[in-house]
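hiii so um. not sure if this is the right channel but i have a protein structure encoded as tokens and i wanna go backwards to a sequence. like what aa goes where. can anyone help
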């Protein structure tokens, strides 16, 4: 037995869905605009998780997904995937809110390769259910939840098949039922949702049950609790059983600028109705069993010397280096242009070339990101700036709509360390020019930069430093971070280069060090 302390990953893994295949649990979550996308994690105890695979490297390579011109897909991309395993096949189904499509990926192994399909129609926050007699249903919607029968190959609605309104939420709550998870357990059908309370904004988990797929679904809220954190409820996610017959839910909680973090909740049953938590609360700590007690998990965030590893077998190499040959802990802000990247593993340096001119960091291609850790973390990087062109800026950022960053720019032939960012309170940050709070002239071609973030109790602040004459010097101001719908993701460290005047400048990045603040129990 091991003790779990919520939240379980301390990282932004929202809208989780979870399954068990044999002795292995798998979890998928929303990755929005980041590429590669649709990350699947695995665990043997539901507490500790590690990366397995990205389902896709690229989605549709649209102008928004490739950051062509001023186009982008921030806050859109893939949402709320459904993960299922049926008759030896893994299924991942999700919609992308920038393309308006419903995607279905299939594979005979979770490691892939994954085959891409589309389901005709758009099914918001959908969930697949494979039933008896090879019938398959998709449940979906917002406020009004529908169940539609699909063709056996899942290519679209089955002509003459079931299509019905199953559950309808009140019009007075700010968020109606969505985030559907659809199950058949012991002959009964269950629909799980997230929604907000009618009298105030607080997420709650709801469940409705029926004895038949076309029968009446009855139910209501099954978990209304914020674990003492700012009225931010715990809701939306999948449920899963253990081999010994225990049940758990993996839901998420809004945790401020760090994002939406998974919470593990025990589930029991009372007359076929699910009972979440203990005494109506999501417990902060409790004991769970491990299916592989001595297994060592690979961290979900890591330092990187950019030298790779030699002698790995094909499966391990694919799992550990699944981000276009970089460590799988990294994701690009959008689909990368790999022709602008060069990795020198002998020297341990990642070179980026500026491939477009843009007015702000968020329109730069190839921003290489890692999730940030609750309650606080730091990132350090050495940047080679000797080949920057006039107006270029390269460095380390905290990527959100209200991003902040420390970088090195070439201005009138001289190099300056600068702290810049988006105005935190701007109404439309996408159209707001970057603000520069401070600049500091430097003479070296290699500069060590650092970003620190504090998310404790929604403090949500970042500070930026450079190594100046052998000591860390704070540059600029303490930058306020926010979780908002413009990006709809938690803050991330990002390595970046962008050009303000002309393409072709280069910057090199080496020796990224990820630091973790001690967790407060």
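sure thing!! here u go:
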């Amino acid at each position: 037995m091991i003790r779990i302390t919520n939240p379980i990953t301390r990282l932004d893994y929202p809208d989780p869905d979870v399954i068990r295949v044999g002795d292995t649990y798998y979890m998928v979550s929303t990755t929005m605009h980041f590429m590669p996308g649709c990350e699947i994690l695995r665990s043997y105890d539901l507490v500790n998780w590690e990366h397995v695979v990205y389902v896709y490297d690229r989605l549709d390579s649209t102008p928004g997904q490739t950051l062509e011109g001023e186009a982008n897909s921030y806050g859109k991309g893939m949402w709320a995937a459904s993960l299922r395993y049926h008759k030896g096949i893994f299924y991942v189904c999700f919609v992308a809110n920038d393309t308006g499509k419903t995607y279905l990926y299939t594979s005979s192994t979770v490691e892939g390769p994954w085959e891409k399909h589309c389901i005709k129609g758009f099914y918001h926050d959908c969930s697949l259910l494979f039933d008896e007699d090879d019938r398959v249903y998709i449940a979906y919607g917002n406020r009004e939840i529908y169940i539609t029968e699909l063709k056996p190959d899942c290519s679209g609605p089955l002509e003459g098949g079931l299509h019905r309104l199953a559950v309808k939420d009140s019009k007075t709550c700010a968020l109606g039922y969505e985030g559907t998870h659809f199950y058949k357990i012991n002959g009964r059908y269950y629909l799980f949702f997230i929604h907000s309370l009618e009298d105030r904004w607080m997420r709650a988990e709801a469940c409705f049950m029926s004895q038949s797929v076309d029968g009446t679904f009855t139910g209501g809220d099954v978990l209304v609790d914020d674990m003492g954190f700012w009225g931010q409820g715990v809701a939306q996610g999948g449920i899963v059983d253990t081999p010994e017959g225990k049940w758990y839910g993996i839901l998420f909680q809004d945790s401020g600028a760090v994002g939406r973090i998974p919470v593990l909740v025990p589930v029991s049953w009372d007359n076929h109705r699910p009972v979440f938590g203990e005494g109506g609360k999501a417990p902060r700590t409790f004991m769970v069993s491990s299916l592989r007690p001595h297994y060592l998990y690979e961290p979900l965030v890591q330092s990187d010397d950019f030298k790779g590893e030699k002698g790995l077998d094909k499966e391990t190499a694919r799992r550990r280096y699944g981000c276009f040959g970089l460590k799988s802990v990294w994701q690009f802000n959008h689909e990368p242009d790999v022709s602008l990247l060069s990795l020198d593993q002998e020297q341990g340096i990642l070179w980026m070339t500026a491939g477009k001119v843009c007015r702000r960091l968020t329109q730069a291609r190839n921003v290489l990101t890692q999730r940030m850790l609750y309650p606080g973390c730091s990132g350090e990087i050495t940047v080679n700036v000797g080949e920057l062109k006039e107006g270029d800026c390269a460095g380390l950022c905290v990527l959100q709509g209200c991003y902040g960053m420390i970088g090195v720019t070439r201005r009138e032939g001289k190099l300056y360390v600068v702290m810049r960012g988006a105005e935190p309170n701007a109404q439309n940050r996408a159209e707001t020019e970057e603000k520069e709070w401070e600049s500091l002239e430097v003479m070296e071609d290699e500069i060590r930069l650092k970003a620190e973030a504090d998310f404790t109790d929604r403090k949500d602040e970042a500070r930026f430093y450079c190594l100046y004459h052998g000591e860390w010097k704070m540059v600029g101001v303490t930058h306020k971070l926010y979780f908002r719908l413009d990006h709809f993701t938690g803050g991330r460290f990002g390595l970046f280069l962008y050009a303000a005047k002309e393409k072709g400048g280069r910057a090199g990045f080496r020796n990224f060090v990820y630091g973790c603040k001690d967790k407060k129990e």
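oh and The chain has one helix and 37 strands.
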